[in-house]
Q: What sequence folds into this?
């Protein structure tokens, strides 16, 4: 199951009033484990950024001048998202901004059936408690000490850890099935992640004999000999 954890930063709170996206970051998760594939892009909003917004994410219009326009990153972003579910904290906010930008760039809106709102999940799990990203990091033991301001790339990494904890505490590195590596897009640079090589555990002849001896001596009417031998034990 492929999912994408996503976050945006914007010039304000309402795309209908002219606010724009200034940063998009996304991380790929496969079977509840990060793969290392990442999309990140700063965007020139083609407008000013109010001081109130700058106080939140630290970015000014001058800092973003000359960065790609959203219409230039829309295609690569959609390619990265693919058909996967999209997880975001207060997802309707991010979807609303992305939809406005996509329509402006001549693309279709995102399918709302793909939307997974981690804020709604947290509210169901912790009703009546604060469920901001910072609050969840503290509650679930996710280190957010480096988060001094809103930043889409940092926030999406923290959100991925929070989401995995909300869904049962899955940890990276436990995927046993081989899977092709996906490219990582950071700004304009494409980097291929290192593919993981499966390492099957195959017992030795002595280990198999020791196991058969244990079963014969210690278990009454064992089921093991009646079962088909697993791969590697035949």
A:
């Amino acid at each position: 199951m492929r999912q994408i954890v996503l976050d945006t930063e914007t010039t304000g709170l309402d795309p209908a009033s002219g606010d724009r996206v200034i940063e998009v970051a996304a991380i790929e998760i496969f079977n509840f484990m990060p793969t290392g594939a990442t999309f990140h892009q700063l965007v020139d909003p083609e407008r000013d950024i109010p001081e109130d917004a700058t106080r939140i994410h630290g970015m000014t219009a001058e800092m973003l001048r000359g960065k790609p326009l959203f219409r230039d990153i829309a295609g690569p972003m959609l390619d990265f998202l693919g058909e996967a579910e999209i997880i975001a904290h207060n997802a309707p906010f991010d979807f609303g901004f992305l939809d406005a930008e996509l329509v402006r760039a001549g693309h279709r809106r995102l399918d709302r059936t793909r939307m997974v709102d981690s804020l709604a999940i947290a509210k169901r799990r912790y009703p009546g408690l604060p469920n901001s990203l910072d609050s969840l990091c503290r509650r679930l033991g996710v280190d957010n000490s480096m988060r001094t301001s809103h930043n889409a790339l940092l926030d999406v990494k923290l959100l991925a850890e929070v989401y995995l904890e909300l869904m049962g505490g899955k940890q990276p590195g436990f995927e046993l099935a081989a899977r092709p590596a996906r490219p990582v897009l950071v700004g304009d640079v494409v980097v291929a992640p290192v593919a993981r090589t499966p390492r099957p555990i195959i017992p030795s002849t002595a280990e198999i004999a020791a196991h058969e001896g244990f079963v014969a001596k210690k278990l009454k009417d064992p089921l093991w000999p009646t079962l088909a031998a697993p791969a590697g034990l035949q």
Remarks:
- Residues 152-166 form the longest helix (15 residues).
